[in-house]
Amino acid sequence: MDTDRRYPSDIAFTPSVKAIQSRKGSRHAYQRMEQGGSWETRITPELAAFVAVQTSIFLATANAAGQPYIQHRGGPPGFLQVLDDRTLGLADFAGNRQYVTQGNLLENPKAYLFLIDYAQRRRIKLWGEARVVEGDTALVARLMPEGYQARPEQAILFTVAAWDVNCPKHIPQRFEAAEVAAALAERDRRIAALEAEVQSLTERLGADLG
Question: How far apart are CA 97 and CA 79, in angstroms?
């Protein structure tokens, strides 16, 4: 990890980025943010709660030549786990066996996680370093979601250097299929209950009039 950053946000706000911010008029606002506390460097309870419900994440890496790569990882809620206040981990399920992410991390440990909640229109960015752990069956067993039908091949550990929450602007609102199905099932249950109540009242009214 880089240790010469003055502010946590310097991991993204390099001198060239700050120069562009100055030229385009946003540097002053970001400078106030830096001086007021800047970005988080530890996993807070709020971030842990957000992580716990994720079913889809994106992991970005780059090789020694700087060629970037983004890999999707998914699973049931809780497949991405908080191991301590600086570390996230997940079981790496067997896939297409390209191993681009693993190869990149051997050359360049710097990594980036992107988490997004479409329903709540919220996204979180995490900078840090990642590594693949092979042969640690205890760690893989700890990270493997219970009952999930996938074959874990190894583990990925992500050490957080800094993270920040994006604004919700331009995030389309979408909902998980399971959430929609549950909402529709509850709607149908309420409709059935109301129909039964209407039928009962109708029969009682008919009996009273008879």
Answer: 20
> pTM of the predicted model, to two decimals?
0.82
Between CA 47 and CA 40 the distance in angstroms is 10
CB 39 within 8 A of CB 164: yes
Same domain? For 60 and 146 the reply is: yes
Residue 104, domain CATH: 2.30.110.10
Reported as a single tens digit per residue, the pLDDT across 88-103 is: 999 999 988 899 999 9
Q: Report the domain count for the chain.
A: 3
The DSSP line for 16-65 is HHHHHHHHHT-HHHHHHHHHTT-SB-S--HHHHHHHHT-SEEEEEEE-TT
Q: Which residues contact 35 (CB under 8 A, 6 or more apart)?
A: none
Sort 79 into a burial class: Cβ within 10 Å, 0-12 / 13-18 / 19+: buried
- Which structural domain range is residue 74 located in? 40-166
Does 171 fall in a domain? no
Same domain, 130 and 80: yes
